[in-house]
């Protein structure tokens, strides 16, 4: 299991905090003892000062710009120990309110990480 919490200076940072948690399991199958499966959840929050500036910009007729809040991500992955020193990790992510705004469509993202150790 893991938990990552990041808090930035609210006076200066566009993104003021981020939280990610999840779990992973090594050896999900007897025949694949080095493989890994994982699941994670995350939230990235845009500073409330940024959101207030966006609201003021819209009120002043300088918009429209989307007012940002939080972005949420869910990810599942499988780490395939393909060869000694080579790991392939396909993943699937669902992103709710990309960029912290509901004006952006939710996204489904397919990825692949390749890690080689020499």
Q: What structural keywords apply?
A:
elongated; 54% strand; 1 helix; mainly beta
Q: How would you describe this structure to a colleague?
A:
The protein has one domain. The two termini are 27 Å apart. It is mainly beta. It has a six-stranded antiparallel sheet. A hairpin with a 2-residue loop joins strand 4 and strand 5. It has one helix and six strands.
Estimated structural class: mainly beta
Structural Rg: 19 Å
- List the domain count as a whole number: 1
Reported for the largest beta sheet, the result is:
6 strands, antiparallel
| Number of DSSP helical runs | 1
Q: Helix proportion of residues, in percent?
A: 10-25%
Instruction: Tell how many strands the DSSP assignment holds.
Output: 6
Kindly estimate the percentage of residues that lie in beta strands according to DSSP.
over 45%
- Average pLDDT confidence is 96
Quick rundown:
The chain has one helix at residues 48-59; strands at residues 2-7, 15-26, 36-46, 70-83, 86-96, 107-116.
Topology:
Elements: E1 2-7, E2 15-26, E3 36-46, H1 48-59, E4 70-83, E5 86-96, E6 107-116
Antiparallel strand pairs: 1-2, 2-3, 3-4, 4-5, 5-6
């Amino acid at each position: 299991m893991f938990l990552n919490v990041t808090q930035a200076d609210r006076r200066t940072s566009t993104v003021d905090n981020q939280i990610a948690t999840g779990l992973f399991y090594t050896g999900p199958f007897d025949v694949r003892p080095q493989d890994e499966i994982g699941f994670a959840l995350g939230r990235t929050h845009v500073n409330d000062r940024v959101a207030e500036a966006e609201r003021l910009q819209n009120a002043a007729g300088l918009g429209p710009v989307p007012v940002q809040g939080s972005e949420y991500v869910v990810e599942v992955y499988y780490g395939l120990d393909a060869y000694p020193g080579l790991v392939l990790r396909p993943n699937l992510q669902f992103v709710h309110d990309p960029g912290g705004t509901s004006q952006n469509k939710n996204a489904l993202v397919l990825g692949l990480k390749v890690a080689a150790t020499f």
